[in-house]
Design goal:
By secondary structure, this protein is of the alpha+beta class. It has 13 helices and 13 strands. Helix 6 crosses helix 7 and helix 9 packs parallel to helix 11. It binds cobalt (II) ion (CO).
Length: about 400
């Protein structure tokens, strides 16, 4: 039903001003009105707003590849006031996964927020992935997530509200699986879909896992395969292998909860999750904050099917290059490790796994516990070799000991 009175009032004003009052870049009457007899300004909506649109076709950069690069970010944050409050145990200064605020000697708040563009086509699966990714930073800090607030950007005048509903449903269901209550949220109209959550949890101040406590001898364990960035990019250009995409989607939808529980039980002190800055970016932060040099065994890194072939064929996105700009300063590639292995280290991950530095004596038990809890891809990918300048030495494989 068209409210002609309302339309006349709104369009009258637009025509008088010389442009649409909802979008001053458009003339009035606009193209949509001329073609489909719909005035968005008057609150009218297209009857046939698309419902079954493939979400990744709507975005420029998929998932965590939509993150602002580390180089640009450092420039944008330069000179901002630092936090001097003794209750702030972890702030953005140390590039940790979440901020931590002490409430009592035994309790601290741990908080993080993460929002990104669609990385899969199905709205419900995208919602699950956005939720699993958002809550991951709490797990990476050793925290117990409790509550969340959603943040949605959505082109509500172009797409059916049912798509947004499916996204939210996927997110809420995944957070329920994590035992997290969604308290509310905020939505904005935007040209591109973006979705994520601000998540709050609790952690014991003495038991949080930071990125600064790795020690020589520690074993590095990664709990999920990598390569989601390359697969997403390949999908956008029609070159992704179906098998790799299916593996990656399943992995991105999985919570890091079981991995975090195994990690806490093992008394680990140092961990992070691998997201937008790639394995090199996040491991580089551990090396820098801990003041250590690490070794990574390229062929031991779990990777989704088809990713190495794509990299060899030159299917390497701009997001990989932005990560390389920043993180290549950490990386020293040994003879024998191919260039494509190094490129893999810069692949931006969406809802990636935990990267754990565990004492050597506890590593076999932790790996077994991870596998027992269903974290089947978990693998030893390297070790902390010595104190020293932040450096990642990339070898093809582990030296025989
Ligand atoms: Co993180």
């Amino acid at each position: 039903m068209i409210d002609y009175q309302k339309r006349k009032r709104v369009m009258g004003r637009s025509i008088k001003l010389g442009h649409c009052i909802c979008n001053p870049k458009d003339p009035c009457p606009c193209d949509l009105f001329k073609q489909k007899n719909v005035c968005l300004c008057a609150g009218e909506r297209e009857e046939d707003a698309p419902e079954d649109v493939a979400l990744t076709t709507l975005v420029e950069n998929a998932g965590c590849a939509s993150k602002i690069g580390q180089e640009d970010l450092k420039r944008a944050l330069a000179g901002l006031p630092r936090v001097f409050d003794p209750r702030v145990l972890v702030s953005s200064d140390t590039c940790d996964d979440a901020g931590v605020y002490k409430l009592t000697p035994n309790t601290a708040l741990v908080q993080s927020v993460d929002v990104f563009t669609p990385v899969v086509d199905d709205p419900y699966a995208f919602g699950e992935i956005a939720a699993a990714n958002s809550v991951s930073d709490i797990y990476a800090m050793g925290g117990n997530p409790l509550t969340a607030l959603s943040i949605v950007a959505f082109p509500i005048d172009k797409l059916s509200p049912r798509i947004m509903n499916r996204m939210l449903q996927g997110g809420v269901d995944k957070l329920r699986e994590a035992g997290v209550a969604v308290l509310g949220g905020h939505s904005i109209k935007d040209r591109e879909i973006k979705f994520g959550f601000a998540v709050t949890g609790l952690v014991h101040p003495d038991k949080m896992t930071v990125n600064s406590k790795a020690e020589p001898g520690d074993v590095l364990i990664l709990t999920k395969p990598i390569g989601t960035g390359t697969l997403s990019f390949a999908r956008q250009i029609g070159r992704a292998p179906a098998e790799g995409l299916a593996e990656a989607e399943l992995s991105m939808r999985a919570l890091n909860r079981a991995a975090a529980e195994a990690m806490s039980a093992a008394g680990v002190t140092t961990a992070t999750d691998i997201t937008g800055f790639g394995l090199a970016g996040h491991l580089g932060e551990i090396a820098a904050q801990s003041g250590v040099e690490v070794e990574v065994y390229g062929e031991a890194i779990p990777v989704f099917t088809g990713v190495m072939d794509l990299i060899r064929e030159g299917v390497i996105s701009g997001a990989v290059e932005r990560n390389r700009e920043y993180a290549s300063a950490f990386v020293k590639r040994e003879k024998g490790a191919g260039e494509e292995l190094e490129t893999l280290l810069y692949d931006p991950q969406t809802s990636g796994g935990l990267l754990i530095a565990v004492r050597k004596s506890k590593a076999p038990a932790l790996l077994a516990a991870l596998h027992k809890r269903g974290v089947s891809a978990a693998a030893v990918i390297g070790r902390v070799s010595r104190k020293g300048a932040a450096r990642i030495v990339l070898r093809a494989k582990a030296p025989r000991s």
